[in-house]
Target: PTS system fructose subfamily transporter subunit IIC
Amino acid sequence: MKKILAVTACPTGIAHTYMAAEALKKAAEEKNIEIKVETRGAVGVENALTEEDIAEAHAIIIAADTDVDEGRFRGKPVVKASVGEAIKNPGKLLDEALDKKPTSQDYIAEIQKTKAERTAQRTGVYKHLMNGVSYMIPLVAAGGLIIAISFIFGIEAFKEEGTLAAALMDIGGGSAFALMVPVLAGFIAYSIAEKPGLAPGLVGGMLASKIGAGFLGGIIAGFIAGYIAKWLKDAIKLPKNLEGLKPILIIPFLGTLATGLLMIYVVGGPVKAIMDGLTKWLSGLTGANAVILGLILGAMMAFDMGGPVNKAAYTFAVGLLGSEIYGPMAAVMAAGMTPPLGLWLATLLAPKKYTPEEREAGKAAAALGISFITEGAIPFAAADPFRVIPAIMVGSAVTGALSMLFGATLRAPHGGIFVLLIPHAVGNLFMYAVSIIIGTIVTAILVNLLKRPIDVNKV
Model:
């Protein structure tokens, strides 16, 4: 029996990574194929592939939207796909992997092939951005929650030196948040140019923080550093015995110098002005403007349920946490929870409009919804997109608008209802919960109004 290996990884490492892994395992079981899947999620690498696994494998499937080290698969046929493709068509990927023939063991040929494949993969701006965001999120989560805990001692308690509140603020705000933008920039650059891009990216991000260019400056610094490092890597040709100096000395030195000078003399000032204007506008948002922003962010969260539009809204809100603007984050998380919660409620309110499988899926969607995993709505949307997607977008838009209208704030970028239990993590907690409940009800009512009764003869 041929053995297939797989690696799954999505930007946030919370839902799609594991959904793709399960889909591949299930399809392999149905086809009687031996498979081992390594997941590279937010908690790190699980079920890691060993050298023995790789040696025994017929082919490897890489279902990833972030960078995966492919060097260890040298000499093995590789099938590449997005995690979304693995969730939708796992059987097709397995068939493609089985049809692969052993590749040449010629080292140079393999290196050239790997370089060509990596070059082709690294053209996606979205992929590089999401790679940076995925490394930044743990810092934002840890920093935001530790700051919230410091407020238990009083909103101003951290100002008194030597106290526990001051220590917590130093950990959360002074350290974790301070690393946020450098890490974002560093891992955008790493995604583009691998390790040689890391130092220029980190330094560019640090300069963005110092200048006051915020997360927007960090994103720009990451792309500048990444593409400069990649260009240097491709352009500089050295004798073989000096080649080792490129990634550890020449590229970091030249890349960091160029990125730093560009950030200080060209990019930093204008981006700081933009960020100052954006911060001032968002800080003063009230009434209709706040509602409109909440409507837009909410609708974006439900539009593609974990796709690029959803991630754009999420990245915008996460980035603003570093500028101490917490309203959009509250709107985004609330709006991301209501699609699966609303669908769960819909199956309870009108069970006859859903198949037994959909009613069971509704229970799972409830668990995913309270955990802020919007992807829990995908099975319903895939089965009936023209009715479900508009309904959940309206429900999420209402949720986002209400959250902004009520002035709710959120200091953590994830966690669902579990974050609500942490003191001071959520501002205006009661009305925030009301926003989520109303959005859930609106979603459920709209879905049930649009849904047609099921044909009992087909059940």
